[in-house]
Each structure stands twice: as structure tokens, then as C-alpha cells.
Design brief:
Distance between the termini: 30 Å
CATH architecture of the largest domain: 2-Layer Sandwich
Order of helices and strands: EEHHEEHEEHEEHEHEEEHEHHEHEEHE
CATH superfamily of the largest domain: Bira Bifunctional Protein, Domain 2
CATH class of the largest domain: Alpha Beta
Bound molecules: phenylalanine
CATH topology of the largest domain: BirA Bifunctional Protein, domain 2
Strand content: 15-25%
Number of domains: 2
Structural class: alpha+beta
Strand order of the largest sheet: 3-7-8-13-12-11-10-9
């Protein structure tokens, strides 16, 4: 039975047909791992902040934001998939748990208390379950702007920015950056607001600043790994810039790091859309912004193998990290066995459109598909056929994920679709999911895993009207 109100962080909120935040999430909102002393997320945050000594660091902003802050202020179109209830936790129609730290960009530009700033915070997204995805994670936003009206006499903004680039440290990182600063279709200049020289200079300052973050992180990782481990690999560290799209920057890029043979996306960034600055009362300022995922970086830095570990209160985890002294690589405590169980079911006969999670990428338009965080590879298209008003709502894979999370909590390590087919005669659709159960702290008995699995089966039937096979 739903109450008409929900209370969170000492505030009550009206609930409505948009409300979809489960109690499991509400219960973790107060954890704020980025502020916990000696926590790896907080240590990673401070390490990155130290690369931006002149910036103002905001670390205490409430996760409860308006739809206007999270989406509208950033120019998200009204039909952007990130706005949907399947991807975002709504407190009510006009209030969400922020899906990214960019939700605070406009307000911070408006306050205009310093040219450069970072914002670190917990962010929330409905998503798949695996070892690198968790519905709460932490991001750091960074931004830097220059004021056209406050330039030394005779100096252009582009000249000023390039002079500031010269003041940044140099590095000898191997960087691939094959694309021009702007491209008319793929990565357009904000004409007429910016000149080509301005965009190029801002891009140079942005890229150098972030390359220096990577250098800092990886020199620490290398030292931490000592003689062995991935961080000490003899291959030179390699990064590349690729073109990207976000509704709130242009041109835009993502930075990828070559890590154990794979290119890993670590952040998204770009030249701030001039509309955002203009609407924030700063039409004369130009600059850049980035957003990075702190878990992703902490996992690389310490070689932490599972994102759930960050939420562990087990001293065998927490005692391995310290604000003081040199960084030490994480040493896994003995791994407890995993136990997987499958569940197969027929979707309700009239389900018009099951979102099919088969290896597609999210409609690629920036947040809240996180750059620098956890972008999901399994997502969803909705194929609408024969919809009538009596059809049940389509079942989204994230709804299944949430049922698993709310039943098994952090004992669910991963959930993956292993089979799907449509019956040739009845046209009914069958899905089979494999759920891997594992505790990071103890051995889970088969009876316990069975009981959890059974509750999930019951929930699938009750909440989505599936028929177990
Ligand atoms: N908010 C974006 C995300 O979460 C990242 C980003 C921040 C991109 C700032 C550009 C500028 O994916």
C-alpha cells in the first residue's frame, strides 16, 4: 500500500504515478561514499581534485533535484530516452534522484563564485546488474570558464586560454587524437557564438587538464602495484580521444584508456553550450565541462574487481584504504563461491512490446547514459506492434533488474539474458535469465540462494504477470 508521501533526507515529497524509487535505494542515499574518510571513492575524489588546485570543490549537494535541473537546464529534448521511468528514479513527476552531476552545472555557473569548479556526488540510474554496474554510483563534474569581458587589453579569449594551457604541466603520455577540434556534422562548432580559434583553444585546455588527471591516477596505480599486477604492466599507458555527443556540449569527446588490452571509457566532456551559460546569467563566459565516474577510476586505481565492494562495511575491505600514506593495491579477501540459477518464463500473451535487451547500445546521446561512468551495453528498443488500450505496460529489462535488486540486494552479482525466443505458432515470447548469486563476505548456502530465487520467481509472476516455465 503506497503512502501519499515519501520522506527523504528530512524532506517529504508528494508521490504520484511517476514515483518509482524503491526503498532499497532510499536506504542508501545517506551513505555518501565520496565523503567517507578512508573510503576509496573519497580518496580517488581527493586525488583528482588535487589536479585542480585553483578550483572550488562542491561535495555536498543534495541528490534530490528537479527534472528542470537534471534535464531541461541542459537542453535534453522532451523525448530523450534518459527521461523515461525505466532509466531514471523519479520521486514524483517533477523531482528525481539526479542521474548525473551535470544537474548542478547551470546553478553553479549562475552562482559564479569561481572560474573553475568540481562537483562530486552520488548519482542514480536504473540499469543492468553486473560487476561494473550499480544503481548508485559517484561522479565528478568539472568545469572552467573564461570571461570575454574580463580579458587583459588587446588579448583575445583564444590567446588567453592558450596562455593558460602553457601554465599547465607537460606530460609524456601517449595520446591518440585523430579528429579535428570541430566537425560540421559530427562535432559542430557553436557558431556564431564561438569562433573556430576559441573552440580549439578551449578544447586544448580541456584535453590537457584531463590527460594530467590520467597521468596522476596511473602513476599512483603503478606505484601501488609495485612489482606485480596490472598497474605495473610494462606497456606504456595509452589514451585516446574520440568524438561524442551530449545535449549540453559541442564539440564533445570521450576519453578512453587502454587497460589490459581493452579501451575503457572513463569520461565525457566538451565545450559548454552557450545557451546554458546565457540562461545562467553568464552570456559572456565560455568554457568546458567534463563528467567522470569515480568508481570506474577507483576500480582501475586499486584493482577492485566488483563494484558492490564499495558498499561493503566489512573491515576486510574498509581497512585496506587510508587517506594517509601511499596508495596500496586492493588485496581480494578469499572469494566465496558463486551459485547461479536460471529462470524461464513466458511473457503475458498480450505484452505488446517487451524491450529486448540483446546487445544494443542505448540511443547514444550522452547522459544519462554515463560517460565516465557505467555505460550499459545491453539495452532496449521498444518494438510497438498491435498496441491496444487493454495491453499491460511493456516490461522493461530494468524492471526485472530492480525486482532482483530489491529481493536479493547485493547478493545478486549479475543478471543476464541467456535465451529468448518466440513460439512459432502462438507468437508468445519466452525469456530465460541467469542470476548469479554470491556474497562478497561469506559463503552463501544453496538453500539461501534457492529461497531468494524462489522469491524472485514469485515476484515476476505477481508484478509482471509472466508464466513460469
Ligand atoms: N553528464 C555526462 C554523463 O553522465 C558527462 C558529461 C559531463 C559530459 C559534462 C559532458 C560534460 O554522461
Amino acid at each position: 500500500p503506497k503512502k501519499a508521501e515519501l520522506s527523504l533526507l528530512n524532506q517529504t515529497h508528494v508521490i504520484d504515478e511517476w514515483t518509482n524509487v524503491p526503498t532499497s535505494i532510499l536506504g542508501s542515499v545517506s551513505r555518501r561514499l565520496h565523503l567517507q574518510p578512508n573510503h576509496p571513492i573519497s580518496i580517488t575524489r581527493k586525488l583528482i581534485e588535487s589536479r585542480f588546485p585553483e578550483y572550488q570543490h562542491h561535495n555536498d549537494l543534495s541528490p534530490v533535484v528537479t527534472v528542470a535541473q537534471n534535464f531541461d537546464s541542459l537542453g535534453f529534448p522532451s523525448d530523450h530516452p534518459g527521461r523515461s521511468k525505466t532509466d531514471t528514479y523519479y520521486i514524483n513527476k517533477s523531482t528525481v534522484l539526479r542521474t548525473h552531476t551535470s544537474a548542478h552545472q547551470a546553478d553553479t555557473f549562475r552562482a559564479n563564485t569561481s572560474a573553475g569548479f568540481t562537483i562530486s556526488a552520488d548519482v542514480y540510474r536504473r540499469d543492468a546488474i553486473d560487476r561494473s554496474h550499480y544503481p548508485i554510483f559517484h561522479q565528478m563534474e568539472g568545469a572552467m570558464t573564461w570571461d570575454r569581458n574580463a580579458l587583459p587589453k588587446g588579448k583575445t579569449l583564444a590567446q588567453q586560454v592558450l596562455e593558460d594551457v602553457e601554465k599547465l604541466p607537460k606530460h609524456d603520455l601517449v595520446v591518440e587524437d585523430p579528429n579535428p577540434p570541430t566537425h560540421p556534422e559530427r562535432n559542430p562548432l557553436q557558431s556564431p557564438d564561438h569562433t573556430e580559434e576559441e573552440a580549439a583553444a578551449i578544447a586544448t585546455h580541456l584535453k590537457r587538464s584531463l590527460e594530467l588527471v590520467v597521468v596522476e591516477i596511473f602513476s599512483r596505480a603503478k606505484a601501488a602495484a609495485g612489482g606485480g599486477g596490472a598497474g605495473a604492466s610494462s606497456d606504456p599507458l595509452k589514451v585516446r580521444w574520440i568524438e561524442a555527443y551530449f545535449p549540453f556540449t559541442s564539440p564533445s569527446w570521450e576519453l578512453e584508456i587502454l587497460w589490459q588490452g581493452d579501451w575503457l571509457e572513463v569520461l565525457g566532456c566538451g565545450v559548454v553550450k552557450q545557451d546554458i551559460l546565457a540562461n545562467a546569467g553568464a552570456p559572456e563566459r565560455l568554457g568546458w565541462a567534463f563528467g567522470l565516474g569515480l568508481e570506474r577510476i577507483a576500480m582501475l586505481l586499486y584493482e577492485i574487481p566488483d563494484i558492490r565492494l564499495f558498499w561493503s562495511e566489512d573491515p576486510r575491505f574498509l581497512n585496506q584504504f587510508s587517506d594517509a600514506g601511499p596508495l596500496r593495491r586492493f588485496v581480494p579477501f578469499s572469494k566465496y563461491p558463486a551459485c547461479y540459477k536460471d529462470v524461464s518464463f513466458w511473457l503475458p500473451p498480450s505484452t505488446p512490446s517487451v524491450t529486448m535487451p540483446m546487445g544494443e547500445t542505448k540511443p547514444g546521446t550522452g547522459a544519462p547514459n554515463p560517460a565516465g561512468g557505467q555505460s550499459t551495453t545491453t539495452t532496449t528498443t521498444t518494438t510497438n506492434t498491435a498496441t491496444t488500450t487493454t495491453d499491460p505496460p511493456p516490461l522493461h529489462e530494468n524492471d526485472i533488474m530492480e525486482l532482483v535488486r530489491s529481493t536479493a540486494g547485493d547478493l545478486a552479482e549479475s543478471v543476464s539474458l541467456i535465451d529468448a525466443f518466440t513460439h512459432p505458432k502462438t507468437a508468445r515470447r519466452s525469456l530465460c535469465y541467469r542470476i548469479n548469486y554470491r556474497s562478497l563476505e561469506r559463503t552463501l548456502t544453496n538453500a539461501e540462494a534457492d529461497a531468494l530465487h524462489r522469491r524472485i520467481e514469485v515476484g515476476l509472476v505477481r508484478e509482471f504477470g509472466v508464466e513460469l516455465r
